[in-house]
Write a structure and sequence with these properties.
single chain; 366 residues; alpha+beta; 2 domains; five-stranded antiparallel β-sheet; four-stranded antiparallel β-sheet
Length: 366
């Protein structure tokens, strides 16, 4: 499920920034109901406005990162193509400020008495990284009262408590706090120090009702051409109507996986569903947007495959499996047969539907 096999070449920071921007929700509704646990943060309307403001801030943050790439220094050894520790530092610092900060009555500042920064020297963010984060967030519109941004390191004793504001749009602070609480207390997947899920503005964690998977998929597909996005949504509806379960997973990749889970009384874990997937949409810094298909039964419909476009015939004939075992550089061949989600897929639309139909589990075939 990870794309970190083989030699790793770190992508330029501007490409990583664009990759992260694509993961931010393009359309956030204005009227969704919130979980009761957020009533103590602020009014529902204030939180929704704050979340939208935080989303806009993230767009600006990644644009700034492209323009000021010197903040994001590469690690000594990369674990992925998007492995910039500065992003993890920003992610965790923003979560920490939002989670531990007390929102003022006017809603225009957060007072932080406990944070990763104030806990120095035990902080997981290196001293130089702390100041870089504060300087960069200041460039992005934040204000940290009393902090000397010219200093090499932060004097924690002089900044306790730390007053944090966002003068350009104070509404952001309520959204930041609510999202940070959700990140810390509601995320079902395990949080790691070196992730940056918070920088995706996952507002759906705040929602009282489960999000509609089709709407989540629309957000995932929004950077793609309209016709390609429409084709992907058509596949989603076709096969969920036929009985496949769709999960949105971040187990290494950002993915929408489709599997037949049967009629088990106990809902299977996300990892188990992913392991049973028939196909998936996935997005990665390495390969972009793709459709992956894990063929199991091609020998049963070999004559039908002969009528497919030549490109698709060749892809199916190659099969899938570990690229390195076949003497090739890793292209995530173990994940399935990879078909790029671009304009070319539209010319094969009918053949792909026929292909997926024949790969459906026997229990779901009509």
């Amino acid at each position: 499920m990870s794309e970190s096999h083989g030699a790793i070449t770190l992508k330029p920071i501007d490409e990583v920034a664009q990759y992260q921007k694509n993961l931010i929700p393009a359309n956030i509704p204005t009227d969704y109901a919130l979980k009761p646990m957020f009533e103590s943060v602020a009014g529902a309307e204030s939180i929704r406005h704050g979340v939208a403001a935080f989303r806009d801030f993230l767009y600006a943050l990644f644009d700034r990162l492209s323009a000021h790439g010197h903040f994001a220094k590469p690690p000594k050894k990369s674990s992925s193509m998007a492995d910039y520790p500065f992003l993890y530092y920003l992610n965790n610092l923003l979560v920490d400020i939002g989670y531990h900060g007390k929102l003022s009555e006017a809603g225009d500042s957060l007072l932080v008495t406990h944070s990763l920064l104030l806990a120095a020297p035990k902080s997981k963010i290196p001293a130089a990284g702390q100041m870089d984060c504060l300087r960069f967030l200041t460039l992005c519109g934040f204000n940290f009262a009393g902090v000397n941004l010219e200093a090499k390191t932060l004097n924690a004793l002089e900044t306790q408590p730390l007053e944090v504001s966002y003068p350009g749009n104070p509404a952001l602070l309520a959204g930041l706090k609510a999202l940070a609480i959700a990140e810390m207390e509601l995320r079902t997947t395990r949080r790691y120090w070196n992730d940056n899920n918070f920088l995706r503005c996952d507002y759906r964690l705040l929602m009282a009702n489960a999000p509609d998977m089709e709407d989540v998929l629309k957000d995932f597909l929004h950077p793609l051409p309209t016709e390609v996005s429409a084709f992907a949504l058509k596949l989603h509806k076709r096969y969920t109507d036929m009985g496949l379960t769709c999960i949105n997973t971040r187990l290494g990749l950002v993915s929408f996986a489709y599997a037949h889970v049967g009629n088990s009384q106990k809902p299977p874990a996300e990892r188990d569903i992913y392991g049973k997937r028939v196909w998936e949409f996935a997005y990665s810094i390495k390969n972009g947007y793709n459709l992956f298909v894990r063929t199991k039964q091609t020998e049963k419909y070999a004559d039908i495959i002969k009528a497919f476009p030549v490109y698709l015939q060749e892809k199916i004939a190659q099969g899938y499996g570990c690229d390195r075992k076949r003497g090739e550089p890793c292209q995530v061949g173990c994940q399935g047969i990879r078909i790029p989600l671009d304009g070319n897929i539209l010319e094969m639309g009918g053949a792909i539907e026929t292909w997926l139909d024949h790969e459906m589990p026997n229990a779901l075939r009509k």
